[in-house]
Amino acid sequence: MSTAYAVNEIVLCYHGPLLYEAKVMKAAYWDETTTKTGVLGEHYFIHYKGWKQTWDEWVPSSRVLKFNETNRAHQKSLNEQVKQSTAQKEGSTSHHKHSASTSSNVASSSKDSGAASGAQRRKDGGATGSLGGSTSRKRGRDEMMDSDAASSKMKKPEMKLDVPDVLKVVLVDDWEAVTKNNQLVPLPRSPTVEDILAEFKEHCASSDKKLPSKETVLPTLISGLQLYFERSLGNNLLYRFERGQYAEARRQNITGQHVVIGEEKTMGEVYGAEHLLRMLVHLPSMIAQTSLDPESLAILREYIMELMAFMVANKTRFFLQ
User: Fold this and answer.
1) Sequence-separated (6 or more) residues with CB below 8 Å from residue 211
2) pLDDT per residue as tens, the chain (321 positions)
3) In whole angstroms, what is the distance from residue 132 CA to residue 144 CA?
């Protein structure tokens, strides 16, 4: 079989947002009967240069690039972008930490210099010095306003969730069961993600609690969470040990030859509360990639916190015991 990359070929491979030099150890074509992740097509078993073998992994062809000057330049560009982003975050943190002391020092210094310059202006006639100072201060204010506006545009939406302690315990137990004990959540789950979200929608609609714009927000919220779950499950919510189970679930419900067209099931109709909770705690990082305004962000947070409280109240029914 002919593949785009040969065994032992040196390539560049995406791992997260960056490209790394790597070596193709194996090549294979995965179909519905052989796929390990649910993704079909050419796959390559990659070893990252300088990394331990525990990081070796199968990746789809979309993550692999030829090792040439053009792609090397792209690799360097990505590295620079990450460095700049990190520097901006560190600079912002440093600015907040030192702003109080800096303001104090500036104020003290301004008093001393103001007294001296005032005396000098009186000595020199005063009017010209006063006009120059006013123009300089105006320019400084304009530059500061421009800087604040630019910072506001660059700032990504940030949503902080206070995960209830009960659900934190569930997350830890879930992690230990899968990664340490090699135990899988049995599928299909009951209730499913779709069931839980439907129940939550009814709960909010009938609740006396004042949640913002129930009639318009609830349908959009539920459909958005369903979509986020489908998109993120295979990419972000699974431990390595679960990938085989995920591929099998897709074969049985979506891609398999025996699946009747029109009767496919979404993964939200197969997975349950354990994976829904994983998505909720990952939600802030997903939201950071959007352009949600602060008001919408606050409304979303309020509903997500209500959903977590709803899951706590139904813990024994939703989660494996």
Assistant:
1) 204, 217, 302, 303, 306
2) 678 899 999 999 988 778 899 999 999 998 878 877 777 888 999 999 998 888 888 888 888 999 999 889 888 888 887 777 667 666 655 555 555 454 445 444 444 545 444 545 444 444 444 444 555 555 555 555 555 544 444 567 788 889 999 999 999 999 999 988 889 999 999 999 999 999 999 999 888 888 888 888 889 999 999 999 998 998 889 998 899 999 999 989 888 888 888 888 999 999 999 999 999 999 888 888 788 888 888 999 999 999 999 999 999 999 998
3) 18
pTM of the model: 0.55
Distance CA 308, CA 286 (A): 17
Question: How many CB atoms neighbour CB 237 within 10 A?
Answer: 20
Q: What is the rounded CA–CA span in Å between residue 90 and residue 98?
A: 12
Q: Classify burial at 192, counting beta carbons within 10 Å of its beta carbon; exposed 0-12, middle 13-18, buried 19 or more.
A: buried
